[in-house]
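Support request, priority: normal
Reporter: lab tech (M.K.)
Component: structure prediction queue

Hi team, I submitted a job for Lysophosphatidylcholine acyltransferase 3 from Neovison vison yesterday, and the status page still shows it as pending. I've pasted the exact input below so you can check whether something in the sequence is tripping the parser. The sequence length should be 154 residues. Please let me know if I need to resubmit or if it's stuck on your end.
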Amino acid sequence: MASAAEGDVGTVAELAKVLRFGFEELSLNKLATSLGASEQALRLIISIFMGYPLAVFYRRYLFFKDTYLIHLFHTFTGLSIAYFNFGNQLYHSLLCIVLQFLILRLMGRTVTAVLTTYCFQMAYLLAGYYYTATGNYDIKWTMPHCVLTLKLIG
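Reply from support: The job had stalled in the queue. We restarted it manually and it finished. Here are the results:
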């Protein structure tokens, strides 16, 4: 009876080894290297193309549903895609969005709110560029923050 249990453990270990090998083959880094691109660029392209099936799902199943379901869907999918792209650096975007919400909520539609928004977002973006600067182009959290800053300035 003990030999049967040992055989099961051996079979499970072999199966785990095969699965681990299979997942190592599916690495984004290896795929990006084989395509001649960086892993960050591949993640960005994948996340852009993930928007299409998500849009189809939204249109087919959530279009005329309650607004709280739509907001939950957009929040969950947006945060998931952002985490897929930027990992733990997502907190930069969350921090700026929460602070922007507070600025608009507390100051309202005033010139002071516009100036505060411009100064804070631009300073945060420039500080991000300064602290993450490297010799070559990297896709980091500063890219979506630049889009956010330009939209708020516009």
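The chain has two domains: 11-64, 88-153. The longest helix spans residues 2-25. Let us know if anything else looks off. Ticket resolved.
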